[in-house]
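Async update (no meeting this week)

Hi team, since we skipped the sync, here's where things stand on the single-chain job. The sequence we agreed to prioritize is pasted below, unchanged from the tracker. I ran it this morning and attached the output directly underneath so nobody has to dig for it. Comments welcome in thread, and please keep replies under the output.
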Amino acid sequence: MIVDLNSRYGLNPAHSEVVDACKIIEPCDTLDMGCSNGRNAVHLGQLGFNITAIDTNPSAIDILKSIIIEENIDNIKAQVYDINNASLGEDYGFISCTVTLMFIDPARVDAVINDMHKRTLAGGYNLIVCAMNTEEHPCPVRFPFTLKAGQLREAYEGWEMIKYNEDVGTMHNGAKLQFATILARKPD
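Output:
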């Protein structure tokens, strides 16, 4: 039986889209972009994925590193990295970027997504969940970046769409807003 390490360490549960993606993606080398204190990384690690968890916040990375040490986890490495750099140094079978893009420099979003494309192995997957700002659903939170209708789908033209939607959802703090969600598979 798997112990719920997220609960043990006071982490939020893994993002529901990450949990769903794991139903079709086999454990592989995985990048958790904007991992915060590790809610998705810990979940994925327990399922047998080899995780590189990155975040710009050293305190969050320190929390994740302490969990890794405490639990003697050998398939998660946590490191401070600024996603705005868009210069990932390794290739992955799965790159997860949930509720992260809206916090980066808007001028760097295309470069970040292009780098994700480049660093995804053939047949690998990208998962992105990002806030939107549309006429029908203006974003109530002043994020540095939000997606426009159809923008994320266009960024993945030529990839196999496993899932795509632009639905209204609720953030963990209770704010209601529209999110674009994509799970796409890179062509072989």
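Quick observations from my side:
The chain has one domain: 12-185.
The chain is about 25% helix and 30% strand.
Reply here if anything looks off.
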